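SAMPLE LOG
Freezer: B-3
Tube label: C17
Construct: single chain, 717 aa
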Amino acid sequence: MDLTVLKDSLRLIKEYRYSWAPIEKGYNNRTVYVNVGTHDILEKPVTPQMKEKFIGGKGFGLRLLWDATTPTTRWNDPDNEIVIGMGPICGITQYSGTGKSLVVTISPQTDIVIDSNVGGYFGPFLKFCGFDALELQGKSEKDLVILFDETREVIEIYETIDLPGDSHLLAEKLTEIFAEEESGRKNVSVVSAGTAAEHSLIGMLNFSFFDSKRKVVRLKQAGRGGIGTVFRDKGILALVAKAKGVKGNLNNVVDLDAIMERGRRFNREMRELDDKQCEMRSKGTAHLTNVMNDYDLLPTNNFKFGSHPDAIKIHSEVYKERFTQGVPDGCWIGCNMSCAKGVDNYELRSGPYKGSKVIVDGPEYETASSLGSIAGIFNPDFTIEGNFYCDTYGICTISWGTILGFVMECYEAGVLNDERTGGLKLNFGNADDAMELLHQVARGEGFGKIAGLGVRKMKEMFIANGWGDPQFLQDIGMENKGLEYSQYISKESLAQQGGYAMTNKGPQHDEAWLIFMDMVNNQIPTFENKAEALHYFPMFRTWFGLQGLCKLPWNDVEPESNALSGEPAKVPEHVDNYVTIYNAVTGNNIDKHEIIRQSERVYNFQRIFNIRRGYGLRKHDAQPYRAAGPVTAEEYLSRQERYDKQLSELQGLDPSKMTLEEKMAATRKYREDRYEQLLDAVYFRRGWNSNGVPKIEHLKKIGMDLPELIEVVAPLQ
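STRUCTURE (predicted):
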């Protein structure tokens, strides 16, 4: 399809002209609202209170979504919104990891707010176009492309005709159309969801960036919770942001020299220390595959086990050989971490693009597990190909892997059979049928339609059909709040169990990754210690999402002296970098403690948002038992020495005088009780009551005693 024909596939139906103005200290001081049903476009002012209480990024998204919806708004109601926010630091180029966007919506999987961070260039480009956040509301009967064009100071809505539906092609074609000439492709970014987002609840969004070295369009993902499903339900085919270009100080920061100095310091650490530490520049997050296996933390066979003899086949060195080396693999300009690795010229072996040679963005660690070990598959070609198809179809790889593990265990346990799967033999290790199931999701066919519902809804369906023991299905279905678990074994880390199941959105590791602090290094042995960690780290990590920052530069390379610092897990020198950068951007004068207070306000707001929707209480922080301990005899026996020793040392029991069933029951009772004690300790530390509801006095203390919040929590005090 040539460019002329491509342009003919778009029909302009709405044009909105606005007046561009320079960013001031990291803010445009306005957001933009687009209703895709009525085609209304509005500019909204950002008030001083909004900046004080909600900061930016996810905070702006939550505030705008709250105002736009009611407690009964559902994910597929026209009133539901997708909000994309950036944050004041987003878009600077002098420090690594400053190009993140935060996307929020009411999730089709959880019925509460989902938030997902994403790289790529759309967020910074939208900010350069003149807006701190974008609200998308309404529904369109026809597929739309919405353009934000800084060069012409215009927002345009197009109806589409005969554009490709999958993201790798759509992003490429729209980049060609709106760049107009090849040199302009680096200034265009596209947001899209592929065909699977139309047939499942686990659809995700792809944010593109043009790789100037490779001369190809690449994709980064806002993966969790079905945001892409909402996107396609609204009739949005794509968003496009077109910027004039990127130069040194578009954020008009207060003290550029201070930011540059911290950037040089971090870049020196990357040059000198990365190869000794995490090898991010050569392996990306895939460096974790063998580390997790070594510590019995690599999810295998639906989180039954944490390691496997065949894991050597997916060792990080294997992926290093596949990744193109020596290219600046950053998903935003100026990021020296270069962790967005890619497999170039990969020839696909299955599906609609069989025989095509493509670039595959990843796999990252989460995908190496979710499209590999969790399904008992230790074949990097399966993982790489699955990675490509999940991306272009618009499927969250984390959710898909956890779904696949659940389905395979159900198949092996007799909950599913060939008749129920439509002939697919979904036993652990069956890569061919696993790949076909993925293609079925994209086509909206066969058992793929059921798998695309996610673990929670499959559990409910299987139980309703009488296909398996309800307790067994609840125990092995690795979801909390309706969201599938991400890819770490938490059985031996009570703190990580809390770091998953106590999250506001569901079990994603971006709130708190405490396994090494807790399990390996034993730095937080008491409930009080764990509660303090489960207060500090979720709050600190929330701050990245308020600012438009990536978390990886914080602790995936550490200063050489970090181990000698008073709190090495916090990487205090890097925390100081962020304090300096925030102050240098905004002209404010915060300290490291105010980072936590800023985040507390937004974190508690999100908790109350969940409560407003009928969730957000203690019962919703319950975890599936497999997150805490061995569900099956096979699991117990695989680590019998460990579990027997714990019965003796922790409970004072004599395992030699107990049956296997008695040992498993005692282990379960102990571990479930420990988790309940952890809930009590964490809620107390966070200023919540025993039911997980923020106390009014705590809201007053942190400056979030807004009338609309008090109205929600007052009856639950």
